[in-house]
């Protein structure tokens, strides 16, 4: 039998499929790598652009903050002047006001002198001409330098459009801007327009924010030199220079009290002209200090005194004395009708600051009871407590505070700590003295150009010089600090309407107040050679020592503009 062997198969010819697949895979890997690199580069560019956008927006926001600080430090520049030009078109920065009619009632800042490249963009143009010269006022430490992050060339500046708020004729009138000087109030609203860029980086933004500015203290031009919720005892040689327009144009007021003024000895009241021109004593004529007439030794001569009977009756009360003599008039012969309860301010703290601290619960027009407590958060400890409304306001807004104890210190801001020795001529602004508040002889607090609004807790004695307004307020007998666990019971904090309060003022031995004193209680003694001299210039100068406060207007931020 013949056997057949299986012949071996012929090997297939190699066609190179594996090589082609490998090459294709390499090509795909290369394409994926290139695509990944491109995506990574795109993401890097995106994140870089995002970082630039965030950085330049932060720079623009800092410009707005510095613009607000500029006018906080120089509130005098808010007054009408050559630096303000009426908005007539939509160019920078007026275009930030969309409504043409409203825009026409506003002004924009324009530099009155050549200022060069204000925004550091290597060129001088219209923007520089209308941007605030921040470097001349804002401290250098607060300015953005040319180096921000990893960028060494930063450009920014801020323009401003101001609205001088019109005094409303009726309570229901809307808030309006005005170009009529006679209608302007002390309240301003202004729109800051900040332009920031990174030259060479393609990053640029415009941010606008409207803020409002208001004064913490608006001096009352009709403020009497002496004002008390209780009786006033003026004896000896007290001299009072009247406010010539205290009761209206041409109506002088020297003393205003809801009780009676006891006037004995040889106290006199007179106009400033008689006081300075004819009242110089001891060869010491008036002098000018920081633009204000000063004379510590002048007096009101009897023959020109408003409250001095030429026949020799030294107890006469002239038209400048507003008090309650009663039916018998035993303490004086006032020519005015008795002050009615509703004619005298119910709450003296509200009268001075515009913030209600006490309320009338029995209809006698005397605010005897504290208003409900308010929440206050300590800026140093972040603890939240209940405070009386007046104390919460003072902790928030006082320039300096002299604390009564460690608890009071814990509620203060760090910059409210008084670095100077009390009293001192360098102390000005709103100063809250909670303890040891006497002003000794040969000492001074405040100055003619920078007066002090001195709030004193309880009683005090003044023997030195004061430039400004002194408010003696009643400090509640119970602690003013109340935990949030329970509202404070004000039952024991009611004032006695017969005394007007527990604060008492004692002035003697050459005490001189250029301004006014307001007492939530009694003036127990004002004698010796003391003087209270109303001075309108000192009151005007409160604008130098009490800086205005800014507040953001809700919904007024936008980046819709581009300059």
Describe the structure concisely for a colleague.
The chain has helices at residues 17-73, 100-103, 126-129, 272-278, 348-353, 389-397, 406-410, 536-540, 542-545, and strands at residues 84-86, 107-109, 155-166, 184-198, 203-214, 226-228, 232-234, 239-241, 255-257, 261-263, 268-270, 287-289, 292-294, 316-317, 321-322, 333-334, 358-359, 369-370, 374-377, 384-387, 400-402, 429-433, 444-445, 452-457, 460-462, 465-473, 503-507, 512-519, 521-526, 531-533, 549-558. With 563 residues, the chain is α/β, with parallel strands linked by helices.
Notable characteristics:
18% helix, 31 strands, 2 domains, 9 helices, alpha/beta, single chain, 563 residues, twelve-stranded parallel sheet
